[in-house]
Each structure stands twice: as structure tokens, then as C-alpha cells.
Amino acid sequence: MDNKNTKIIRMCASCKKVIDQNGVWQVQDHPDKSYSRIQISHSICPDCVIELYPDIDLNEENETI
Ligand SMILES: [Zn+2]
Predict the structure, then answer these.
(1) Measured in angstroms, how far is the CA atom of residue 2 from the centroid of ligand 1?
(2) In this structure, is residue 32 part of a structural domain?
(3) pLDDT of 25-53, one tens digit each?
(4) Cα 48 to ligand 1 centroid, rounded to whole Å
(5) CA–CA–CA angle 24, 22, 16 (5° rounding)
(6) pLDDT band at 5 (very low <50, low <70, confident <90, very high)
């Protein structure tokens, strides 16, 4: 099994943006073809967190969202 060729991307479940290696959320239309497998980990980008959960305190790191 070749696990090192699997790319895990974090995608916003709301707006479908993905986070790049620089920690920037942006729209990505085409999956990276250099990886044989792409595993999508659904998340929520900060913009959508504010929209969907206006009461959340962003100063508190919460990776489980
Ligand atoms: Zn979003």
C-alpha cells in the first residue's frame, strides 16, 4: 500500500472551499492530479463559522468542528 501518495484535504462543508498548505481557504475546482488518492476531511471555514455559528468564540481553538 502506498499511503504517502494520499492527499488529505480539508473542505468546507458549507461553501466547498479547501484549505491550502498556507492555511488559506480558497475555491479549488480541480483536484490535485499529482496524488493518486485524495481524502476529504469536511470542516467549516472561518467565514462560514461566523455565518452559521455567530455565537462561537473564534479565539478558542476547536478542531472538532
Ligand atoms: Zn465555508
Answers:
(1) 31
(2) yes
(3) 999 876 667 778 888 999 999 999 999 98
(4) 4
(5) 35
(6) confident
